[in-house]
Amino acid sequence: MRREARLAIAALIMAVVAAMLAGCSGGNGGAQNTAQSEPAAPKIKLAGIVFQEDQFFRLVLFGMRDAAKKAGVELLEGNSMNKPEKEIELINAYIARKVDAILVSPLSAKGSITALKLAHDKGIKVIAHNTPIESNIPAAYIECSADDLGAQTGKVARKYIEEKLGGNAKLAVIEFKSLVPEQSDARVNGFKRQLEGLQGVQIVAEQDAWLPEQAVKKVGDILTAQPDINMIYAANEGGTIGAVMAVKNAGKAGQVVVFGTDSSEQLLSFLRSDDNILQCTTSQRPAEVGAMAVEFALKVLKGEPVEPHVEMTGICLSRDDPAGLAAFEETLKQWMERGNS
What we know:
Distance between the termini: 78 Å
Strand order of the largest sheet: 2-1-3-4-5-11
Oligomer: single chain
């Protein structure tokens, strides 16, 4: 082949290759590669903090999980276990993880302020639930009315005293003042207010016991020291469980009745028990509180207004209302299944 022909063929091959390369990297194709979609915005990150391992707080977290899942946001969960130093540690950890909002049940109306202020100053939104703090740091505070929880149980207790005890009762009250004094006082005062005017009612003992094992011992000691007690009011779930167990352990079923606060599967079983010890308890709406905390946090992050203080009413559960118990139990079962799934 002549030299001129070989050179022409080589030039043709080079032109074809150049055209192919231009087609891969230039023109419209190049524009498509350089105009790639922008990185997705970081996923919103929320942190939920509770302070006790009981069914109430598990349901609060279940409500948060459900709402976070529906909204497509990340939820971190923490439990301060009634320890102020643990609460501070959790808040600091969530600040370091750059969460967008902290949804917290504060341990102390005053003592929890410092750590939450640090989060707030870092631009983290704060939503308080169940227990308040004495500060405007939270964008909102969501609770079941503590006064209402005590008052609803108190109404049923008054009716029991009038109709079954002839207007006379010697009463012991189990509180949790050393844990959350404001909330304990509101529940107990709501209960007591419903008994006003009953001249035959005497409160002969008031003690703190918010965990079942505490209440078993405290109520057992009270029953020994005050053998003529015939009624106990307990202001929270653990105290109610422990009071029922203490009455049973003392062999005083049929002599002493219990009225309580909060709800759980165990308390529902007590309301159905043939021993007739637990008469009534008023439940909070923990899953609804948790879900609303997430919804409010997301609104605040978008700059939307929220109600600064939401108070929900409780749900009265009485052994005299089996249909109401069945309906509540079905709702509770559904939340437990959703939360554990």
